[in-house]
Structures are given as structure tokens and as C-alpha cells.
Amino acid sequence: MPFKIDVCTRRDLLRGGALAAAGALLAACGQAAAPTQAPAAKPAEPTKPAAAGAAQAPAPTPTQAPAAAGAAPAAAGGGTITYWRPVKGKGEENGTNQITADFSKANNGVAFKVEYIPNNEMPQKYQAALATNSAPDIFSLDTEWPAVYAALGALADPPAELQTTIKEKTFPIVQEVTTYKGKFVAVPLDSSNLVVGYNVKLLKDAGIDEKKPPADWNEWGEMAAKLTKRDGSGKLQQTGLENDFTDEWNWNTFLAAAGGRRWHSLEATDFLEPPFVAAAQIYPDWLFTKKINDV
Amino acid sequence: MTLAGPWTITGMQKDAPDLEWRSWMIPPQKAGGQSGTTLGGWHLGAYSKSKSLDTVWSFITFHMKPDNKVLWYKLTARVPAWKDVADDPIFQSDPNRVTAVKQQATHLAVGQPASPGYLEVQAAVTETLERIVKNKEDVMKVLKEEKAKVDPVFAQKSKG
Q1: Distance of CA A199 to the CA centre of its chain
Q2: For B141-158, how does the pLDDT look when each residue is reduced to its tens digit (9 = 90+)?
């Protein structure tokens, strides 16, 4: 079985938990319960499945009707262009609909069949499709998937002109995750990252000057400790830093800010390198010593 | 404070439009160092056995025209992967979006070569965090043990 993938990412599932961040800010303002746990109510849900049951049986969803029903001109090489997208909400569906429609209009009615698949099910879907040579014409690939699928021989090399454009016009960090063996194997579409969000009022109440961002992790931890409130019994009333402390994607923030990566060579990981150790140590320091949150 | 992503911006606009919140870039570990952040996002790939590769690349190229990239970022509220559109006014409309774009631009590649062993390392990092945070195990002990477990698999997978 040449297309076996052993481990499926759980990051996108966990990233849904990060949506609670907005809830944490709300809670810190006294508009909701104390944020000792990730709030159940999520302010925004870009990964919400389109419909109940979709997780079990995602239905093909054509993005637009052909110019004439049943008479859509075939794509070059024959057939309709199949395009798998992650379930990411209406904004992304609208964007996909509009751009495929615009392309179709400008290209003699090329037809698309777009299928929306819950993020966490995509690896299994790809695995099954590759095993039967029925993969979609266009893959949507989560951040670090390009190398995984390139190694399986599933991805065609972008044309030379597109390779040059990617090199010249994308951010360096994005290039790092779309290359394999020295060339681009996927085209970056969009990104997400994490920054430090803060409630202005709570900082003022704690006597913290928001115009002076923490210069390093020491100052950041001190600020978080100042913002943390517990009652007489030690029960958490207000968190110093809301975060999913077991989420590897969130933790990557600390690894990167320490100047580290998970590996620098393909022979071994960097688990014992100083930046990795520092990033691993900061969580127990903040959670068990400064007690800025509970786990 | 919280670690805030693009979804926080849209979520707060929708659910707490009157709450004043702002953002900073991630502080470096040591003062004077380089900020850094985690990276997410999606890419487009073409199936190597597609019978319509010319059309697929034509479409992806069309999708990457500046107007279409801006449209995409406007509708999705994502952080730009493309620096040629990062100065577009849509990214200046919200102070927290400005922070996210600035963070993206300062997040430098530092030479982590792409590896198909990524998923195994990802699982090892998750296990590491579970042991450190939930089980309160010694950090160095956990790192040594997890490295010993994952390195052979990672090296093998990385051969492609």
C-alpha cells in the first residue's frame, strides 16, 4: 500500500478549541463565567461542518451550475475539475464559489465539482482516493502536508513560471512548508498565526501599560501573573493567559519565539536543542510556579 | 491575555464588538531577540495523475492573481501567505489584523527542511506536552525519551 499515512493530524480539531480565545476575553470582562476552562460557546466557528452528518458522508457540492445544465464544457484532458476543500465556513465557500465561477466564465465554462470535507477527515479521504487512483484534481493541503503527499508521489510539480512567482512573492515561512527536495510542490493560499491578544480594560486595571509590550518571556510571564485572579480558596477567577497548553500547534508559537524549529536536519529532531528545551520548560514554569492558569 | 488568531478577530467583531482589545506580536524568549509564531494555513496542490493538469494549473494561477488573492483574504479574514498583497487596505482595517500581518512578515524561515516525517514529530510533540503539562513529568526526561522514540522513525520517513 504505497499511500499509507500513519498519523492523522489532530491540530485542526484542537485549533477549534483556540476559538475559545474570544470567549476568554469576554469572560475576563465579566460578561461570562470565569474562564478557568475553555468556554463552551464559541464566538466564531470557521471549521463548523456544513450540515449534521456531513462528517460521515460528505456530499459533493458543485460550486456553480454550468452554463447549460448537463452541457458543461469539459476541462482540458476531459471531465470536470474536482476540487476538495476543508470545511471552513461561509466565507471560504463564498470565495471558492466566486473564484471558480469567474474562472469558468473566462475559460469557456470549465466545470468544477467542489467537495467540502471536515479537516480531520481529509487525510483518510486522500489516502483512500490515492489508493484507488481517484484523488481530486486539486488538493487542499494543510500547513505541513505538502511534503507528506509529495513523498507519496501524489503531487505534480507546479510549472516553472509559478515556481518563480511563489519564490518571489510569498513570505519565507510559507515557502518553508511548501517545498520538498528543493522545489515547490504546492502553492500557498492563505495563512494563520497567533499573536498576543489582550483586554485593554483589564490591563489598565492591573496597572500594566499596554504601550509597552513585554520585551521577553520573563516580562510576559510577570504580566500574566498580575492579571491572574484567584479567590481565597485558590479557585481561578481570571486567567493570566488563556491558551490550550497541550496543543502542539499553539506551542509552536513558543518554539518559534525562542528561535527554534522541530528539526534542522532530516537525520534527527531538535528536542534537546536549547530553544526546544526553553519552549518546553515555559509551560510548567508559568502553570505550576506562576500559576497563571489551570490545566 | 490570550493567544489570538484570525478567528479571534472575526469572532470578537461578531460577538463582542464593543469590547476593546488589542494585540502585540509574540515576545521573543530573550529581550532583543526575534519574535516568532506558529504557522497555519492551506495550500493548493495538483494531483499528479490528473488528466486536466493544464486546466488545474491555469486555475491555480488565476486564483493567485492579486485581485483574487485580495478577494479571498477579504472573504476569509485569513492572514496573507503572499507578501505582494500584504499592504492592501483590507489588512489595515483592523489594528489586530495589522499585528497579525506584521507578525507574519517577521516570522522568518530558519531552515527546517520539509519532511514527510512531520506527522510523527507532531504526534511526539503532542505526547511531550501531555506528559509535561498534565502528568507534570520532568521536562528533560520527557524530551530525551520522546526524542529517542521519534528520531529513528523521523529519519526513516525523511528519506521519502
Answers
A1: 24
A2: 999 999 999 999 999 999
pTM: 0.83
Q: Among all residues of chain A, which has the CA nearest to that of B112?
A: A264
Alpha-carbon span A181 to B158, nearest angstrom: 10
Residue B41, by phi and psi: left (phi above 0), alpha (psi -120 to 50) or beta? left
Of B134, B24, B130, give the one whose Cα is nearest residue A217: B24
Backbone angles phi, psi at A132, to 5 degrees: -115, 15
- Tens digits of per-residue pLDDT, A134-155? 999 999 999 989 999 999 999 9
- Cα B125 from Cα A32, distance rounded (Å): 33
Q: Is there a contact between B50 and A99 if contact means CB atoms under 8 Å apart?
A: no
Scanning A263-292 for CB atoms below 8 A from B yields 263-269, 271-272, 275-281, 283-284, 287-288
CB A213 within 8 A of CB B43: no
Q: Please answer yes or no on whether A223 and B121 come within 8 Å at the CB atom.
A: no
Position of cell 475553555? A38
Cβ-nearest to B23 among A175, A196, A217: A196
Contacts of A145 in chain B (CB under 8 A): 43
Quote the ipTM score.
Answer: 0.95
